[in-house]
Amino acid sequence: MDQSQIQEIKTRSTYGVIFLFLRNIGIQSISIIGFFLLTILLGPSEIGLFAIVAESVSILGYFSDIGLASALIQQKEEVDKRDLRTTFFIQQLIVLALLLAVAIIYPQISLRKNYGSKEMWILISLCFAFFTASLKTIPSVLLERKLNFKLLSSIDIIENLVFYLVAVIFAFVGFGGYSYAIATFFRSLLGLIIIYLKSPWSVGLAFSLPVLKKLFRFGIPYQVNTLIALAKDRMSNLLVASIIGRESFGILSWSQKGPRIPLSFTDSLIKVSFPTFARLQQDKLLLKKTIEKVTFFTAFFTFPMLAVISVTAPHFISLIPKYTRWTPAIIPLYLYSLSAAIAAVTTPLTNLFNAVGKITTTSKFMLMWTILTWIFYPLLSIKYGYIGTASAALVVGSSSLLVWITANRMFSVNIFTSISKPLLSSLSIIILSLIINRLNLNHLASLSLKLSASLLLYLLIHLFISVNEINWLKQQLAALFRQRSA
């Protein structure tokens, strides 16, 4: 790979990170406000209902393309019309088969569980969303291969804005759980229309056995990992929901919302890392440096946000009288925050293994996490309820330290060194908050002081201990803007 190609990848990757970061700020701002309003208008039971149905339908997504879309993104050579149409054809066959299976199985489940029209319409809307998502796969793949995350980011923001706007309006006028179904229909249809207007392709059906074999070489091992992830995450969540009930599952959904915010912000780094790692896999030294930068900045943005969310959540709940019904979610939130900190650093590493063809390595870790999940989630959920579920998440997440050790062995990357500075400065935020608690201020004053003091302390610490990293980021941004203005 020559220097001009390396520079192009670096520029596109940095540009993609910026737009995905801005996209996530937009999405999370919308999501936080929308979810907050919905949790005032709707109770834990209705929040839990939507979460359970959403988990059920998301299972279909794991089977929707058997890894072919990821294989197209990872493919070194350019994709052609035959590649795209073969992938599209196979995917649509699978999607239609899965929707047919839902149509056959759901009436039996509905009868046994005594479900009503609310559950049915939420399911129908989510199945519609699943179908439209499959139609968006090829345009999305083409944009990702070009590292054109600006357009993808814009579409995501529009979809989320429409979803929460419609959901809140209909919940406010009294539609209850039906609001989720109506909002899902609007979001899915609008997103499909926009992406085909902005990223059209020559839609068609084809079948090429050589293309299928080529894609399967990466796609099938990749899909094995996704199927293991299915058992680890989605199916285990449904098991937990059956153990602790709809209302407790709603409390868990609330407690997970906060810790997921920082993860979604750093999703820009993680999303760009896969195609970037894939294109740098021939240059070992540059790949190593890229991994170090990705893990540092992932921790740099994620760790302090998790710390601030944890120390301010009790004050936030207490400020709104109607919101005190979510007080039981505070302890699970602490546990999920710790789990999220570990996951934030681990996800780019599993992306790295996949991008350089070490799929079996990822499979082994996924299998380990799945076994641990199915041991600890039901065991602790039965004994301690939703607190046990959150505790199990932390136990399983802690095993990710083995991934960090493996990355060090394969790529000579010391993850502990990469995250040490963000970790130290984030711990200082927690210590500062404990000191503020001793001042016995009211909730509004404590919340304001913790937010402002935490931000100031974090920045001051990094101005002293992360000078090289901050200067590198400034240089990348300056180079990017110079190139864009040239």
Task: Write structural notes for this entry.
With 486 residues, the protein is mainly alpha-helical. The protein has a domain at 42-207. Helix content is 86%, strand content 0%. It contains 19 helices and no strands. The chain has helices at residues 3-41, 44-61, 68-74, 81-113, 117-135, 137-145, 149-172, 178-198, 209-244, 246-265, 267-280, 284-319, 330-355, 359-384, 386-398, 401-411, 415-437, 443-465, 467-485. α7 (149-172) runs antiparallel to α8. The chain is globular, with a radius of gyration of 23 Å.
Q: What's the tally of helices? A: 19
Helix content: over 70%
Strand content: under 5%
- Unreliable spans are none
Distance between the termini: 24 Å
> What would you call the shape?
globular
Q: Give the radius of gyration.
A: 23 Å
The count of strands amounts to: 0
Elements, N to C (H/E): HHHHHHHHHHHHHHHHHHH
Largest sheet: none
Nearest-integer average pLDDT: 80
- Structural class given helices, strands, pairing? mainly alpha
Per-chain topology:
Blueprint: H1 3-41, H2 44-61, H3 68-74, H4 81-113, H5 117-135, H6 137-145, H7 149-172, H8 178-198, H9 209-244, H10 246-265, H11 267-280, H12 284-319, H13 330-355, H14 359-384, H15 386-398, H16 401-411, H17 415-437, H18 443-465, H19 467-485
Helix pairs in contact: 1-7, 1-10, 1-11, 2-5, 2-9, 2-10, 3-6, 3-9, 4-5, 5-8, 7-8, 9-10, 9-14, 10-12, 10-13, 11-12, 11-13, 12-13, 12-17, 12-18, 13-15, 13-16, 14-15, 17-18
